[in-house]
């Protein structure tokens, strides 16, 4: 670990960082977030040893834009990273670049979902997963006039116990991370490090290892749907998404039960793999000098509101788990102030290289937020990708969640009294002042109508640049990016 500069306060001493990221982890499917039976002992222990953030959000509930915001500390509309066919190219520079410039070794292991082949600021990039062919999901660019989706029934048909390429890949990721830490511990003269360990589970296909699936197989559907049984709400934008991505239509009660058993089993397997990395951190003696972050790029609706996958602003999709273990935070701290993944960049800098900052970062160090929670802090998430016929802009502030849909009615939820978002207050005249206040907050961060128009224009240009509708329609569907060999 890098030495503390002479005269620097202990609070500013550089430390190592292990940043653990998963893909599509519904925040509430974790013991430490209140789930009654899912088994996640390692993440629960991590939360008990550090701080758990109860209102953390991705900046876009889909993989590629979320990961671009996470890397750069900037909002999606500032990057033009609208969809899964707009992967991060290494520009603008990431927090990885800035830490590397400051002398920190920044290594990545696992899924990145960038374009591939660019300089992303890592000193090492091990077994990466990038978007397919450097382009990603071009079919998702057709939003108002979507191309027919094939294979949506596979989500239900494949759900159950077994072995998948993703679970095998995650096992490789964990093993590689453990080997990296073991090797690092033997290099006593090495500089400080930031190790980014990025898993794929519990992203679909919903196939869990047999032993993990068996932990949940005996539960009935009502038990498994704990917190995931909100009804369809009828908002026209979301109805459009249900028609285009008709996953829910393929489920029977039995396949729904199998899907939830598999998802919970994948979360438990993920927790087991994370446990091996955390144990190696302690066994090598690196634990005391290393801070740990756990989060996910977005959640999964898991059938709630008649939706599967991500792509909406419900808590099931837009909220993420976020845990930070650092000696400056009291064990068992719970932070209710809203935060988002753009806060990771200044947090990583505060941990590994306190002299590093970037005026373009949209976030604030989680260390500062945890120690002095701001009472009225808003966070922004937005969506401009597959199956949506307009943009979505979400502001979370205090108890309120406001969702603006250009050209359509807004939604408003009181998350303190309605955490499952069953009661939309978007048209209730009693809450007009709340909606107006939150709309003003949104417009202080961006012009949603201009951003929405810009996203559609950029997507139209990329459709033309890639051969137009007929050529893209003839290409293969990409339900998920395959794991590397």
TrEMBL record:
Q: Does the keyword Membrane apply?
A: no
Keywords of the record, alphabetical order, are: Hydrolase, Metal-binding
User: Per UniProt, what is one GO molecular function of this protein?
Assistant: sulfuric ester hydrolase activity
Q: What's a Pfam family this protein contains?
A: Sulfatase
Instruction: Please tell me whether the keyword Manganese is annotated for this protein.
Output: no
A GO cellular component annotation in the UniProt record: cytoplasm
Write down what this protein is called: Choline-sulfatase
- What is the organism field in this record? Marinovum algicola
